[in-house]
Write a structure and sequence with these properties.
By secondary structure, the chain is α/β, with parallel strands linked by helices. The protein has one domain: Alpha-Beta Barrel (TIM Barrel), CATH 3.20.20. It is built from 10 helices and 12 strands.
């Protein structure tokens, strides 16, 4: 499948729930969230119908997201089932890590090809402040378990909040120094509660890291499905990556579309939904599904418009991280 700018679309980001066991300040309000009802969320069967039909059209990579996908009881069987679909080459997962200690072994058995773990600080008090309810040690235990069971392609994601100190940046980067883990610093996106929050630029982060660890050398190979640019640092076992949608726009290489937990198709993170495919999935109407997907892909914009202050009015957890 190709869009009108000749970009091949072979990757879907698939939110399986809008629920989360954390309440991060840049993502969700502390109270008052109105979550989808169970019957509004796509079922395992509907998701598999979606992926099977898109795999036949060239989709090769699937990222399972949320909310927090490990709060959904059938996420592990879903991963295993998607892995068995002809044409699917990689299935990866993004998680806050709270339940990873419990599920790491099962994820390994299911055949997961990679995992992204969100860790915004290594200060327990600051972690509780950011997440409102989270315990840092649970996430670190999950990361240790992921390493112990040898889950492949482990990445730590850190939102580049304005509050990040040089010490925190260097401490988090040590994951990549001491283990074959890739650490990515993600530019704060102007979505939902993230709008107006101060953030650090890629250049600021690189300056801090070079002052403390030496020259960052661009690493040209791809290390996953996403748009991160990676760098090598002397004596580091892993790489340092940056995902900077605003400061270093990567839209020209965009190869993905998104589906929310209730079946809305998004061709770009900043846009309001183009269509909802839930009816096509629930009636197993392959022709309608593909018509909707093909039409949406042809309407995929050339680039995002975050800098023009346009975008989806929903929270990131409702869209899919």
């Amino acid at each position: 499948m190709k869009d009108s700018f000749n970009r091949e679309i072979d990757y879907i980001r698939l939110s399986v729930t809008d629920r989360c066991d954390l309440r991060c300040t840049y993502c969700m309000p502390a109270t008052g969230m109105c979550f989808l009802k169970k019957e509004e969320v796509l079922s395992l069967e509907e998701i598999l119908f979606l992926v099977e039909n898109l795999a036949a059209q060239g989709i090769k990579k699937v990222k399972i997201t949320g909310g927090e996908p490990l709060t959904r009881k059938d996420t592990i069987p879903l991963i295993k089932a998607i892995k068995a679909i002809q044409g699917i080459e990689k299935v990866t997962l993004t998680t806050n890590g709270i339940q990873l200690d419990k599920y790491a072994s099962a994820l390994k058995t299911a055949g997961l090809d990679g995992i992204n773990i969100s860790i915004d600080t290594l200060d327990p008090d600051e972690f509780r402040k950011i997440t409102r309810v989270g315990e840092l040690e649970r996430v670190l235990n999950g990361l240790r378990k992921a390493v112990a069971v040898e889950l492949p392609n482990i990445k730590v994601n850190t939102v580049a909040r304005g509050e990040l100190t040089a010490k925190e940046i260097c401490t988090i980067a040590k994951f990549a120094k001491e283990s074959p883990i890739h650490v990515r610093f993600i530019e704060l996106m102007p979505i939902g509660l993230g709008k107006g929050c101060p953030g650090k630029t890629q250049e600021e982060l690189i300056s801090v890291l070079q002052d403390n660890y030496g020259v960052l050398t661009p690493f040209e190979q791809r290390l996953g499905n996403g748009p991160a640019s990676y760098f090598s640092i002397p004596h580091f076992k892993g790489k340092i990556g940056f995902i900077s949608a605003l400061g270093h726009c990567f839209c020209a290489e965009c190869d993905r579309i998104r589906f929310t937990a209730d079946g809305s198709l998004k061709t770009c993170l900043h846009m309001e939904d183009g269509c909802n495919v839930k009816e096509a999935l629930r009636t197993e109407n392959k022709e309608l599904l593909l018509e909707q997907v093909f039409t949406a892909i042809q309407q995929k914009p050339e680039k995002h418009h975050f800098l023009e202050n346009q975008g989806d009015s929903r929270l990131m957890s409702q869209i899919g991280g």
